[in-house]
Amino acid sequence: MTIPYTEDTDMKDRIMVIFTGGTIGSRMSGNVIDVHQDTRYELLEQYSRLEDSRPFEMDTLQPLQVLSENMTPDNWLELLAALDQMDRSPYAGIIITHGSDTVPYTAAMLSYTASHYGLPIVLVASNQPLGHPRSNGLRNFAAAVDFIADADIPGVYVSFENERGDHAIYLGTRITEALPFNDQFDSPYGVPFGRVVDGIFVPDQHEVHPEVAELRAVREPAADLRRVRFSTKVMYIRPFPGLNYALYDFRSARPDAVLHGVYHSATASSFTSERYSSSITGFAAYCREHGVPLYVAPAKGQGSALYRSADEFMRAGILGLPKIGMEAALVKLMLAYGTCDTEEERSAFLGRNIFYEHHEGGSW
């Protein structure tokens, strides 16, 4: 479907819209929400009827159609193949419609593999199906179009309206999972990269955000797309009081790596209980015995003050991934352990700040 372009402009007049399913591509039948083929046309038709719609021609692709909770690394490879094989030269930008459950992970994946394409790639999700009166899907799509048209900043982003009605734009590596009860996304420092206000992109001036000029700089590919694979043997552990590490038994299935989360103060329990395996340092020793690297994220930056427990587990040989959110860290590990052939190559990849996943300049 196309929305006719009628104005003279120096900017490219086309946007590629890639549909992948998710809530924004779903319909409700009774009390069941599921993906539906026709919703892609509904979204574009609804957008074309807006008084302030932009006069872009919209081309479409649909390489996959899944509810995002069912998104897999194989689906990521399908999406990457579609992006890599298309002729991107006619387009001002690319919009990818995606389910809200896993959009932070897909956004991080694209940030590591497609942020060098030289045009904005904006993921758009919805809190409800398009036909629902509370759905923000159309507004999120409209804000993505406005961002492409007004900002013209290459890279990977997510457009999602928050509960205050702000049309937030997040960097692809700096968006955290939505909360279950209010469907709200966040970013590690609590501020998005910017907002779309009356069709104009307004960057947030927080100290951790990159300058727009940095984002416009030419970037080299971080990985050879012909070699890109994602390990499905990366384990994630979240700390909580009573976490018993004895429940993790590597004898039947050995992970490639373990990512361990931390509390907000960059800590995890180093207490040794007499009743159960409670210490992360003890778990680190178990991982070493089985040849499994243990990472923590986000780790404090070099020179930052640490609580004693954090100092203890860092001294125990646990590998810190500094200043990076969990979602971005997990995807980066999956990519590193799926693609890199050597430990040296993996270490260099994990240490590289590919698309601002490392929050430089902040207090962490």
Automatic annotation (TrEMBL):
Q: Which SUPFAM superfamilies match?
A: Glutaminase/Asparaginase
Q: Which GO terms describe its biological process?
A: amino acid metabolic process
Name of one Pfam family that matches: Asparaginase
SMART domains under this entry? Answer: Asparaginase
E.C. designation(s): 3.5.1.1
> Could you tell me the superkingdom of the organism this chain comes from?
Bacteria
Q: Which GO terms describe its molecular function?
A: asparaginase activity
Instruction: State the InterPro entries in the record.
Output: Asp/glu_Ase-like_sf, Asparaginase/glutaminase-like, Asparaginase/glutaminase_AS1, L-asparaginase_C, L-asparaginase_N, L-asparaginase_N_sf
Location of the L-asparaginase N-terminal domain: 14-196
Q: Which residues form the active site?
A: T23
Its family remark reads: Belongs to the asparaginase 1 family.
What name does this protein carry?
A: asparaginase
What is the scientific name of the source organism?
Paenibacillus sambharensis
